[in-house]
Design a protein that fits this description.
nine-stranded mixed β-sheet, D-amino Acid Aminotransferase, Chain A, domain 1, Rossmann fold, 15 helices, 3 domains, alpha/beta, 18 strands, 408 residues, Dna Ligase, domain 1
Length: 408
């Protein structure tokens, strides 16, 4: 490998970033993680070391400082966080790590404003972005106050602080909850409070529409805060399990049944450059037919689990980082308009569970034309165990969609 690179995490995001490295350099990449996860556990394109305390400040700094010292003879290592926890830890401890690492991430202040949802909606409510109507519930309050009588049901209830929410488990805990009545809403809030969560809950009016109203936009902004790359993809399916709702399983880049792609991308680009954003980020959006706008649900301060499709369109994500932080190369802005289908599920799932017929037809057409990619299926990965895992995963998806037919 021409430059030393290390990835933080062990999930799907890490796998496809390792794939980008392998496609570019032909060698396995180093990965530093907390625990084994099947996406990367058996892969031949990664070299993984595990640190059980990596998600703590002390463990994080210690593990990375040790790694950095052991590799400084190769020059500074390009460090790439692939999970919100590691993005926060890296930006919190950036000064301590700079003797050994280079990276292109947003400032800690921006990361914090994106990851804490209450702060996100309040900080950027006058930014020009479009948001759903949003209320806030403080879980420190002993009594759960009734909702305003003029609010429209159903509602979406989600944690302001997802990292903290994940520490307080309860039976049937969903990533996002869809409430249909006032009692339904209050009962869920009380259940979250009883589990020990003491931060804020976000309550939003639900934007009508199936999964095909959801959109994914990925941006890369260079270290000088200028946007160089963007995608805009219409989602066809998301995960249907309660703990994974919000994660995309099928999308088509360059396909948009509702129009205004360039205008929307320009609005998002203008926003990022106005706050001097740096690095990768992903917008989760949903089209609101009542206003004709794409509402921003959240912004992830990193590349997302589905972002490999940019590399499939010829824009290797590792290449952008390396040329930017090591070689000081600036690129002109590009909006990726070519169509490509990303699917993590078998064709049978697309045929059976995508309800938007025009979208389904386009997805199957792209599949037939071999304009389709699965981030986890990589010929360069020679691990038999990894390939066997993918067979089991495909079979399990059929079961998951059959059991969990409803989404938010």
């Amino acid at each position: 490998m021409q430059r030393n690179i290390a990835l933080l995490g062990s999930d799907m995001n890490v796998y496809y970033m390792a794939r980008c490295c392998h496609e570019k350099y032909g060698e396995p990449v180093d990965v530093i993680a907390t625990e084994p996860i099947r996406f990367t556990q058996y892969s031949s394109i990664v070299n993984i070391e595990y640190h059980s305390d990596l998600r703590t400040k002390e463990g994080f700094v210690k593990a990375l400082t040790e790694y950095g010292r052991n590799h400084i003879d190769q020059g500074k290592t390009l460090l790439i966080p692939c999970h919100d926890v590691y993005v926060r830890l890296l930006t919190e401890n950036a000064e301590a790590l700079k003797p050994y690492f280079v990276f292109n991430c947003p400032s800690y202040e921006i990361v914090d404003s994106f990851l804490v949802k209450e702060k996100f909606y309040k900080t950027y409510e006058k930014s020009g972005l479009d948001f759903p109507r949003t209320l806030y519930y403080d879980c420190m309050e002993k009594e759960t106050a009734p909702l305003p009588i003029d609010i429209r049901y159903p509602l979406i209830v989600k944690p302001s602080n997802a990292i903290e929410y994940g520490k307080h488990r309860f039976e049937g805990q969903p990533k996002v909850f869809k409430a249909t009545t006032p009692d339904n809403t209050v009962n869920f809030i009380n259940k979250v409070k009883a589990a020990g969560y003491r931060d804020t809950l976000i309550v939003q009016e639900f934007i009508p529409g199936d999964d095909s109203r959801l959109f994914d936009a990925v941006f890369y902004c260079n270290k000088n805060g200028k946007a160089e790359l963007a995608s805009f993809a219409q989602i066809g399916l998301q995960e249907h399990g309660p703990s994974a709702i919000g994660n995309c399983t099928v999308l088509i880049n360059g396909y948009n049944q509702f129009g205004n792609t360039k205008e929307t991308v320009e609005k998002l680009k203008k926003f990022l450059e106005s706050i001097h954003y740096t690095g990768f980020c992903e917008f989760d959006l949903k089209y609101d037919e009542s206003t004709g706008t794409f509402k921003v649900m959240e912004i992830n301060p990193r590349q997302a689990r589905s972002s490999y499709y940019l590399a499939a369109l010829g824009h290797n994500l590792i290449g952008y980082l390396v040329e930017d932080v090591f070689d000081n190369i600036e690129r002109d802005f590009v909006l990726l308009e070519k169509e490509v289908l990303l699917s993590m599920v078998p064709k049978a799932v697309i045929k059976k569970y995508i309800s938007n017929e025009a979208y389904k037809k386009e997805a199957l057409k792209l599949w037939r034309e071999r304009k389709k990619v699965d981030p986890l299926r990589y010929r360069g990965d020679k691990s038999i165990k990894h390939r066997f895992y993918l067979v089991l995963r495909a079979w399990n998806y059929r079961k998951k969609y059959k059991i969990n037919k409803n989404t938010i």
